[in-house]
Amino acid sequence: MNPLDTLIWLINFPASHGYAMVFISAFSLFGLFAMSASGAAPGGALRRVREREGLLRPEDAPRGRVPQAVVRTVFRVLAIVMLANLVIGILSLTGVPVTRAYIHEHGQPTTATKDGDWITFTTTTGVEYTLESNFFTPAVYPDRDAFLPSGEQVVVRYLPGHPQAFVIDSAQTPR
Asked: Is residue 175 domain-resident?
């Protein structure tokens, strides 16, 4: 399995669900950035009040900053991932082919049936896939605005190791 194909497959999810990714990422970034702040550890504010008032029992004393640092680091990494998903979603919504050009160039062609927003195709291994081609971020390349009627046969290119990453080839029509 090609590592670059795997990376494109992972990036293709936020690119093919751009509308949802923009909203999910934008709203979750507020909480992730808040949790990655230095004072965001659970119970931290209560502990500071108890220390100030002299009410902190010896068993409640902080045992180290390592768990808090790990929590902050995890939330910072999640915030960076969600920020990347936000950027990929916005690029996809504006028509930038974030992953489509690579999939078109390196994909395995096959015929498929388009039924509304759903594409059904069978891979060379015999597995049938029915996947969504979202209205807001259609999986069509090179001409994103090509009209493809429902119920018609189309040519699909998919990554052999990750068939969920596919594009509808608007330059070809099945013979």
From this structure: no
Query: In the chain, which residue ranges form alpha helices assigned H by DSSP?
Result: 3-16, 18-35, 44-53, 66-93, 100-106
Considering just the CA atoms, what is the radius of gyration of the chain in Å?
23
Full domain range(s) for residue 58: 3-93
Three-state helix/strand/coil letters over 39-58? CCCCCHHHHHHHHHHCCCCH
70/135 same-domain check:
no
User: What does the pLDDT look like over 75-124, one tens digit per residue?
Assistant: 999 999 999 999 999 999 998 999 999 999 999 999 999 998 899 999 99
Number of Cβ atoms within 10 Å of the Cβ of 27: 10
Pairing state of beta strands 162-169 and 153-159? antiparallel
Cβ density class 49-74: b for 16+ within 10 Å, e for less: eeeeeeeeeeeeeeeeeeebeeebee
> Cα–Cα–Cα angle for 6, 8, 13, nearest 5°?
105
Residues 162 and 112 grouped into a single domain: yes
Q: Structure pTM?
A: 0.81
Q: If we measure between CA atoms, which residue out of 83, 86, 64 comes closest to residue 20?
A: 86
- Crossing angle for the helix pair 66-93 and 3-16, nearest 10 degrees? 70
Give, to the nearest 10 degrees, the angle between helix 18-35 and helix 66-93: 160
**Count of beta carbons in the 10 Å neighbourhood of residue 136:** 13
